[in-house]
Amino acid sequence: MSNTFKQFMVLFLSLTISFALSASLVAVEKKTGKAKKKAAQKKKGQKKKIAKITFDEHVKPIFRDKCFSCHSRDKKKGGLDLTTYSATLEGGGSGESIEKGSAEDSYLFTLVNHDSEPAMPPKADKLAATSITLIRKWIEQGALENGGSQIVASQPKANFKLKDASNTRPSGAAPMPQKMSLEPVVYTKNNTAITAIATSPWAPLVAIAGQQQVLLYNTQTLEHVAVFPFPEGVPYVLKFSRNGSLLLAGGGRGAKVGKVAIWNVKTGKRLFTVGDELDCVMAADISSDQSMIALAGPTRVVRIYSTENGQLLHQIKKHTDWVTTLEFSPDSVLLATGDRSNGLFIWEAKSGQEYLNLKGHRGAITDVSWRSDSNVLASSSEDGQIKIWEMENGRAIKSWRAHSKGVSDIDFNRAGQIASCGRDFRACLWNQNGKRIRAYPSFKDLALRVSYCDETQSVIAGDWTGQIVVWNGKNGKVRGRLSANPLPLKIRFDEATKSTALRHAELQKQLAFQKSKEIALAKIKLSLDAASQLTATSRHEQAKQKRIVSSSQKTISTLKKQSRKINNQKNQKTTRLKQFKKQQKEIEKSIAKPSQKKELAIKLASIKKEIVKITTQIQMDDKTIKNVAQKISSEKQKVSEANKKREAAKAAEKKGAKNYKRLKKIIKPYYVNLSKAKKVTVQAQKQLATAQTAVKKWQTEIAFATKRPPARSR
């Protein structure tokens, strides 16, 4: 057994996550006739198990036990009689109750399965799972009446066949899911390997395979937008139709069942189920004209079905090993298929006839992808090679070693570039000449699936551990991550509620922290304002005292002038007084002469009178001079005090200016710290708002999903 084969065995063993599949793998590889005989007997036994489910034998007893009390010929509640086959098909007041071939579209089944209201039986427990399964199978087999009725093929629930191949952007808005339930069908504690990824050709939409479900995400917002149940098992292949309106999923359970399902992308309605494989479907596609579905897997047989009536058109048995990949050409003319033993073939899609046998790979073919013009096919292999083939002669026009340990998946984009991933843990983007445009950061384990979203120019890849990364295709930056195993809505709601409480507490703490920064800044600003005010007041005081000094000095100057003037006048009066006193003495000496006595007496009296007058004036001048001197002294005191106050104000100004300068330097970090605190507060407010929005969102989603069964955890 080769190393390549062993690697492939490990991959598919882990993907199926079942002991039954590993047993199947061993059985398939045995080459003895006995093993082949046992496998044939097992398949034959399984075919026998798919027995007819009829109304008379299986369904009517259930109705008799649980429904006849309200829905019989005697008591037709809601106009519905379930006692006879014809009456059951006829339905009641709400119309027909059975849609042959489709349990999901049968009103009666949706009631007993509690998918619609009023749930049946009313005010009672849901029917046993075995009973519901019998009713489902009875409807899906065509609602047979008795053992003589024939099982009919499942018919499509809508005519989605197109007149021509559709490879161009559809008119109007590209199909995107309407409002749908986000409740996962299955949730597991541990992630599993990513088995399939596909992107819509014309919408920002990616489909990711999960356990018994397909998850859809908006590739612009990376928001989860829909869940498509796949109860048949694990989807191993996902493909959008070329116009983006349909989504195909193929998969199943190893060594048990394989199916392909088709959904309407916009409504989420399951339109068609095809295939009844005894092993899981590993490769499938729908033609661009939506007239054919091809599927294949471990059975080594490629089957092509008509979407018009579900009938098998062709069976291709050329492959000698598991068919691992297939894809219709964009023009629906050709079908490429590849297998685990490096077999790579091109078939005429309409006839099923072989067109080309492409030889060149030396390892298992892991994927094929057509260029949009249908003239070129890319193939990838466990040999590490990507090959480009032309379709006229089947020649490999380019080949390069893309991933040293094997290429897992490839995808052509609209620009003709090829996204790939491989066992070297990496995803890459190439041109058709084999030149690597970009290598994206490595996963921690094997990179298994990749797809290129043309609408957002994103590369989306997943690995063995269940990690899914979305990169910007141009610059390689991580845009986000997706999950193939999303949490149930109740858990999301609980986590959002806890997050809201945590964010609220963090916001309160941050608001308190911001308040402390505001207080600290307010204090420093107050000190700064005080320093500024001190400086201004001191300058005002200096100016005031300067004016006082100036005024006093002017007054002193005036007073001094006045004092000098009075002194001058006093001196003059003193001189005159001296003169008069001298005259007085002379007259008093002369008055002794009798001849001049009378005359001199009169003159002496006059002189004495002048002396008294001048003496009085001099006394008044002395008094005035003394008053002026006191005023000068007072003004000098004012000047002295004003100068002291001026010096004090000058010192205060210097102190205020120095303090202002100091505070001005240290206040900047306070502003910075407050600004940072405010930004953190805004961020905390946004986080709280986001958490609160999440709570409301999950409340709404839970209310919307209440009519659906809860997720099963395991």
From TrEMBL:
Region entry Disordered, spans? 547-574
Query: For bias kind Polar residues, which ranges apply?
Result: 548-572
What are the GO MF terms of this UniProt record? electron transfer activity; heme binding
Q: Which residues form the Cytochrome C Planctomycete-type domain?
A: 67-123
Could you tell me which CDD domains the record lists for this protein? WD40
What residue ranges carry the coiled-coil annotation? 625-652
Which InterPro entries would you find in this protein's record? Cyt_c-like_dom_sf, Cyt_c_Planctomycete-type, WD40/YVTN_repeat-like_dom_sf, WD40_repeat_CS, WD40_repeat_dom_sf, WD40_rpt
Q: Which SMART domains match?
A: WD40
**Keyword vocabulary terms for this entry:** Coiled coil, Repeat, WD repeat
**Gene3D superfamilies noted in UniProt:** Cytochrome c-like domain, YVTN repeat-like/Quinoprotein amine dehydrogenase
Protein name per the record: High-affnity carbon uptake protein Hat/HatR
Q: Which organism is it from?
A: hydrothermal vent metagenome
